[in-house]
Design a protein that fits this description.
four-stranded antiparallel sheet, about 45% strand, about 180 residues, alpha+beta, seven-stranded mixed sheet
Length: about 180
């Protein structure tokens, strides 16, 4: 056999083996549902029962979650607010993540209401629901006071080493008028 023919057969064999390996890798990846990135990640939404209150009124702010199809295992939720306008009174865990890792803690001086929640170890959660509710009392007038998720808010999901929280931190504005 001449050298040119040996090289051609060797190249064809190497190409064939490479194609078979790539096809096998693709098949395994497809069968296991492995992806290189999470679609859009988890989205949180901050909603208030009222957008206009009077000084002395109480209202509830809820943090909703949409997992975007991911399997969520934990959430460190930090609601920030203006402590010169609002008093955070209570934090109540929602029904979406049933395990309370760290009970709700309100730090009025730094204006943070924080709770850390998780799923049962064998049952990560997907879908949407309420993570927590915070009860506020209006203590001073303001045309619009902002209640928002702090930048340290994080969401853990199966298969991801970092937070899967998507986009900007959501917020809600509440107007506070003086009591008559």
């Amino acid at each position: 056999m001449n050298n040119k023919r040996k090289i051609t057969i060797s190249l064809i064999t190497t190409g064939f083996v490479l194609i078979v390996l790539l096809a096998a890798a693709y098949y395994v990846k497809f069968q296991q549902g492995i992806t290189n990135s999470h679609a859009s990640g988890v989205v949180l939404q901050v909603l208030s029962t009222k957008t206009s209150v009077k000084v002395g009124d109480e209202f509830i702010v809820s943090v909703y979650i949409d997992t975007g199809g991911l399997s969520v295992t934990g959430a460190d939720v930090r609601v920030r607010y203006d402590s010169s306008r609002l008093l955070a009174e209570t934090i109540t865990p929602g029904t979406f993540l049933p395990v309370v890792f760290v009970p709700g803690k309100i730090t009025q001086a730094s204006a943070i209401a924080q709770i850390i929640l998780g799923s049962n170890p064998t049952a990560p959660k997907a879908g949407n629901g309420i993570l927590e509710t915070v009860k506020f009392k209006a203590i001073a007038a303001s045309t619009a006071t902002n209640i928002f998720l702090g930048p340290a808010t994080a969401i853990a999901a199966v298969g991801y080493p970092t937070s899967v929280l998507s986009g900007a931190m959501p917020s809600v504005n509440v107007a506070i008028t003086k009591a008559p």
